[in-house]
Amino acid sequence: MKIRSKALTSKVLDNVLDRSYDKARKKIERFISSYVSESSAKGIVIGLSGGLDSSVALKLAVDALGSEKVLGLVMPSDTTPKEDTDQAIGLAKTLKVKYHIIYLGPIIEKYTESLPSDKRARGNLTARIRMNILYYYAGINSYLVLGTSDKSEILIGYFTKFGDGAADLIPTAGLYKTQVRALASHLKIPSEIIEKKSSPRLWNNHLAEEEIGMDYEIIDQILYLLTDKKMGPKSAARKLGISIDQVDKIRKMMENSMHKRTLPKTAKV
Length: 269
What we know:
The protein has helices at 11-17, 21-38, 52-65, 82-94, 105-112, 119-141, 151-156, 177-186, 191-194, 208-212, 216-228, 233-240, 244-256, and strands at 43-47, 70-74, 98-101, 143-145. The protein is of the alpha/beta class. The chain is globular and about 50 Å long. The protein has a single domain, classed as 3-Layer(aba) Sandwich (Rossmann fold), CATH 3.40.50.620. Strands 3-2-1-4 form a four-stranded parallel beta sheet, with helices on both faces. Helix 12 crosses helix 13 (244-256).
């Protein structure tokens, strides 16, 4: 059950959102442009889900490189709502980006016909198949894979290891989810995308905030106080007027997902 509280409208959230989004936009665009140039790549390929993060990343990439150097892949599965696919295609057309639609159903079924049934494992497999396809197109075009995760997802490990967490560069990794949403408004991303609930769509009716149990407005404030402000869990809970259990949940998610943010462990010999 998702938790709501007065933290949704706190001064801490105001502090999280209080930044120059024009400056952030320009900095990210310079980062994309310079990294692609330094890598001697011809452009970037990006997975388009019709969601907030991929839409913002697409717009930033187009502004940084020009639409002719950006390739979008729309990869719906059986659990992808039609409106997501339509919105992904619509934005690609608006930004004059070349795109391909690759339906994952037959690919996923081919994989899983010899595997035991498991909802979560199948969802993670879907994310990894998408990344395999992105790198396939990156390889044949001498492109880099542009990731679409944000700081909130990365810190709490809300991504699939070697799936959507794999990329050559992630332009929005320095922005919390709520900040990405604010940047989307600055970039004039369509309102139906901005207002859409975050979802990896790895299974039917899959919503991020429902699975985590908290709104991103609360998650981001907890992360901001624990990481940016180096505040302890008890102090953060008092500051936000929420229970210590909520803060501890996010802290444990950060700790338990550390392996997702580091290179594989190697033996010292």
